[in-house]
Amino acid sequence: MISYGNLCFEYTFALPLFHSIPSSTDNTTMILKIIGLDFNPSKEYLSHLPEIIYLIILIIEFIIRFIYVSNKLKYFSNYLTIIDLLSILSCIIYLCSIIKIKENNLIICFINCFRLIRILKLSRYSMYIRQYIQTIFYYSDISMLLFIIFMCLCIFFGNLTYGISLIDHHQIHSTPLDSLYYSYETILTIGFGQHIPSTPYLTWITITSILFGMMCLSLPVPFLAIYNFNLDNYEQDNTKMLN
Fold first, then answer.
1. What is the dihedral of CA 191, 193, 195, 196, to 10 degrees?
2. What is the pLDDT of residue 218?
3. I want to staple 108 with a disulfide (CB 3.0 to 4.6 A). Which of 8, 59, 80, 97 is the partner?
4. CB count, 10 Å around CB of 50?
């Protein structure tokens, strides 16, 4: 939920940094016509549509948890509930200000920053994060091998993409850096190269962030499998010794 929320929040601000900005107005208009609505939304309001959807999801989740909790006073005294409340209120104030005054002043931008406190909810998973870090360092040889294989794949496909771009005289992948970014984005299945960063610095920053995302999302699978396998063997050995 946090990853999806960050994607929604940064969607509006990230797209102007890229060369190609997808026009979602035509698609949305077509979908609304199919379901029987005659509505032609502007880009100004469509850009905030992901935030509105995410806000609705947050409110529904909060209401459901409030209804089914046994001790409501204890529920509101929990710091995670306070974090959710501040996030929801900041989203509502931000969206209402955008619709009403149609500009981002300093106060609204400051209120908008309160949405970032939802990252503190990761503290409930602190034990698993420590376990993940310890597993990475314990199996450093496997992690390095996986990282080298991934780097070789990205460089290989990046060179292929750049070579094909030279043959076909495409301007999208006019530099090796663009091709490398395209291969990173495609191999990690976070996109299919629709957006090419406008500057080399932005390209390197994006590649670095993708690498950290890859480390956080894909590498735990073999690590935790090996860790659980060793843990099961350890428990079985202890059981045999007790018997």
1. 140
2. 62
3. 97
4. 17
Please report the pLDDT score of residue 46 as a whole number.
59
Nearest of 122, 51, 117, 50 to residue 84 by alpha carbon: 117
The C-alpha atoms of residue 111 and residue 120 are separated, in whole angstroms, by 17
Provide the residue count of the chain. 243
Maximum C-alpha span of the chain: 74
**Bridge partners (DSSP) listed for residue 197:** 18
pTM: 0.36
pLDDT in tens, 187-196: 666 665 556 6
pLDDT tens, position by position, 196-208: 666 777 677 667 7
For 137, the token pair is 């360092």
Name the CA dihedral angle for 54, 57, 63, 68, rounded to a multiple of 10 degrees.
-140
